Amino acid sequence: MAGHHLAKALAIVSLTVTLSSAAVRPRSCPQILASWSWFSSRGIPPDFIMSGLNGSAENLHKKARTSPYPGSKVERSPVPHEKVSWLVEWPEYKPVEYTAASVLAQPTWADPPVNERSFCPKFNEKDGLVERRSQNGLYEVENGRPRNPAGRTGLVGRGLLGRWGPNHAADPILTRWKKDSKGNKVIHPVSGRNILQFVAIKRKDCGEWAIPGGMVDPGEKISTTLKREFSEEAMNSLQKSRAEIQELEKQLHMLFSQEHFVVYKGYVYDPRNTDNAWIETEAVNYHDETGEVMDHLPLEAGDDAKKVKWLDINDKLKLYASHSQFIQLVAEKRGAHWSEDVYPTSLDSGLESRVNQRPSNECGWMSKELRTPTEQDR
Fold first, then answer.
1. Is the domain of 149 the same as that of 90?
2. Long-range contacts of 288-291 (CB under 8 A, 24+ apart)
3. Biased-composition ranges for Basic and acidic residues (predicted)?
């Protein structure tokens, strides 16, 4: 038995060394650190990244294996769930290469091609103003390209994503209690819990309802991104006059001074993800308990949004990417209605345990903290 355990340990060490040495540095960029992550190489994140959320890892990761790739006619190479993990040997794996023309045009938000001699990114580090660190820990870099910590997707390159490796986003979830004509909170007749509403947009690209979020600009604070994306998509600030924008700024200040907490930080199961580029987000819930601010919110769709409105939160919602899971966490934290199924009596204590503990594997996590922004946040 002892010999068996020793052999197993040696095998793991050998595997670690092999995978580490497999990450090759491009000759033109000798300073690139080729990193190895036990979690990414073992394909752990599909089971743990969205810990605490409903839905199997298999179903969640399907969103990054769907065809055609968004905004194109490109078909991904099929990847069965049992071969998603990078640890599963698959010599026949020949993923399709695709990077959108809009990305190859090298706008300010996009990296150059990874083989361009002047491009020497510092993966797993803060690279100037560009954040190349993952919220899920170290990711592997192989042949100069970062490797998706959640596993194979059937497509290499960047697709629609600008950055090699993690592409950081921010999702503001603004909520209020649903009220009747007399101003009383509406209680769901089955669960007996108050119904919570959130501001949702209908995306122009796919027609799905979503949280009005977007990408973090280099050097930008998350709090700034949250305000900017909400104002552009849910308040149409890009089409406002200077006087209207000044008035919007006052409203935004009140909105984002509301009680808030971080719902989730980490990898997102997004249909735009590839083997070499993926979305990570920080979802933050801003809640107006009395409705004095959000009841008078001048919603108007703009930028990437086709429509905007308040949606009732429940388990029937079908939202973009991982947004349904974020919304569920908000409902649970607020003690609001989510499902017509009978809530277990241990729900609240179980939730407290999940919210208070950040998973030891450094994957996606929830924060219990409820607070108002400090001056530094603003």
1. yes
2. 288/174, 288/175, 288/176, 288/255, 288/258, 289/177, 289/259, 291/176, 291/177, 291/179
3. 368-378
- Cα pseudo-dihedral 56, 62, 64, 68, rounded to 10: -160
Bridge partners (DSSP) listed for residue 199 = 310
Max CA-CA distance within the chain? 77
β-strand partners of 286: 174, 260
Cα–Cα distance, 10 to 16 (Å, whole number) = 10
* 159 found inside a domain: yes
pTM passes above 0.85: no
Domain residues for the domain of 328 are: 168-356
Cα 110 to Cα 338: distance, rounded to the nearest angstrom: 39
Q: What are phi and psi of 333, to 5 degrees?
A: -65, -40
In a domain, 369, yes or no: no
**Can you list the pairs that 250-254 forms with residues at least 24 positions away whose Cβ atoms lie under 8 Å?**
251/293, 251/297, 251/298, 252/227, 253/378, 254/293
Q: Which of 129, 150, 166 is the last residue of a domain?
A: 166
pLDDT, one tens digit per residue, over 310-348 is 999 999 999 988 899 999 999 999 999 999 885 544 344
